[in-house]
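thought: user wants a sequence for this fold. calling inverse folding tool.
action: design(structure=
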C-alpha cells in the first residue's frame, strides 16, 4: 500500500486505527492558552493518539531573537519521535481541531527529517466526530522505536533570506490584517517582510474545515505564483507554524518543493536592522 503523504480521510484512518505501523498524533493547541491542548486531549482523543505540544515538543528553545516557535534540534526531535513509537516503517497521521494549523507543523517537521509517510486527518477532530467514530481518554501504551533523522534542505535562515530578499518569492500565511501591520497582538512589531505576498492559510480550506480539492488549490496557487516555480517559494507566517499549512496545500496541489523560513515574522522583527513593510502589497 502506498504511503499517505498529504491527507487521510476519517474512514481510512478508522480502518487502520489499530494497525501497529500507523501512529496518530494529537496536535491541538491554543496560542493564548498553551495548556488547553493537553486538557482537551485528556478529555477525549482518537484511540491510541499521542499528544504533541507545540511549545514543548514541536519547537526548540527560544532566545528572544529566534522567533516564538524555532525549529527543534533534529536529533532531539528524532529521539522524541522514536519515543512515540515512530520509525521509518510508520505511517503517521496528525490532527488538531483548528483546520490543521498545528498538525501541519508536525507534517512539515517529519518531512524535514526525511519521513514522507505523514498525512493530516482531513477535517481534524470535528470530521472524526461527525463520522460518529470513537474517542478515548486512555493514555496509549507505546513501544519505543528508533527514528533515524535524515534532515532535508527545505528551509532557510534569516541571514540567507535577507541576503537574497529580492530573488525570493515569499508567501505570508497570516491573516490579511496582521500582514498589513494592523491588529498585531502576538509580536512587538506590525508589518511584513518586504516583497512578501499574502495567502491566509485558512483560504486553503472549504466551509467545512477540510482542504479544498487538489484542482482548486492548484488553480489558486498558480494564480498567486504567476509562473514562478514552487522551488522558489519561501513560506512564512508569525512563527513558522501556519506557514506549514501553505506548504501542505501546495503539496496537495501537486506543487511540491517549496521551502520554509522557520523563524518567520517573530524572528524577522526581533532585529530592528531588518527591513519592514506595512500596508497591502
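)
observation: tool returned 281 residues.
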Amino acid at each position: 500500500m502506498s504511503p499517505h503523504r498529504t491527507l487521510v480521510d476519517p474512514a481510512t484512518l478508522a480502518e487502520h486505527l489499530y494497525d501497529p505501523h500507523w501512529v496518530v498524533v494529537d496536535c491541538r493547541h491554543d496560542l493564548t492558552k498553551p495548556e488547553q491542548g493537553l486538557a482537551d486531549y485528556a478529555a477525549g482523543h482518537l484511540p491510541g493518539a499521542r499528544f504533541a505540544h507545540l511549545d514543548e515538543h514541536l519547537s526548540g528553545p527560544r532566545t528572544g531573537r529566534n522567533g516564538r516557535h524555532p525549529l527543534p534540534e533534529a536529533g532531539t526531535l528524532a529521539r522524541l519521535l522514536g519515543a512515540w513509537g515512530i520509525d521509518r516503517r510508520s505511517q503517521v497521521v496528525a490532527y488538531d481541531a483548528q483546520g490543521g494549523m498545528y498538525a501541519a507543523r508536525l507534517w512539515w517537521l517529519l518531512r524535514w527529517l526525511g519521513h514522507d509517510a505523514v498525512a493530516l486527518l482531513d477535517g481534524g477532530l470535528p470530521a472524526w466526530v461527525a463520522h460518529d467514530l470513537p474517542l478515548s481518554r486512555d493514555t496509549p501504551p507505546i513501544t519505543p522505536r528508533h527514528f533515524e533523522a535524515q534532515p532535508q534542505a527545505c528551509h532557510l535562515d534569516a541571514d540567507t533570506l535577507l541576503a537574497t530578499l529580492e530573488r525570493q518569492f515569499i508567501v505570508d500565511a497570516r491573516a490579511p490584517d496582521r500582514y498589513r501591520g494592523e491588529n498585531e497582538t502576538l509580536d512587538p512589531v506590525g508589518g511584513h517582510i518586504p516583497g512578501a505576498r499574502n495567502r491566509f492559510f485558512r483560504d486553503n480550506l472549504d466551509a467545512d474545515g477540510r482542504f479544498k480539492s487538489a484542482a482548486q488549490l492548484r488553480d489558486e496557487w498558480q494564480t498567486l505564483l504567476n509562473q514562478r516555480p514552487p522551488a522558489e517559494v519561501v513560506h512564512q507566517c508569525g512563527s513558522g507554524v501556519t506557514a506549514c499549512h501553505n506548504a501542505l496545500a501546495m503539496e496537495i496541489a501537486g506543487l511540491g518543493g517549496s521551502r520554509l523560513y522557520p523563524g518567520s515574522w517573530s524572528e524577522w522583527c526581533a532585529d530592528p536592522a531588518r527591513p519592514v513593510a506595512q500596508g497591502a502589497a
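thought: summarizing for user.
answer: Here is the designed sequence. The mean pLDDT is 97.
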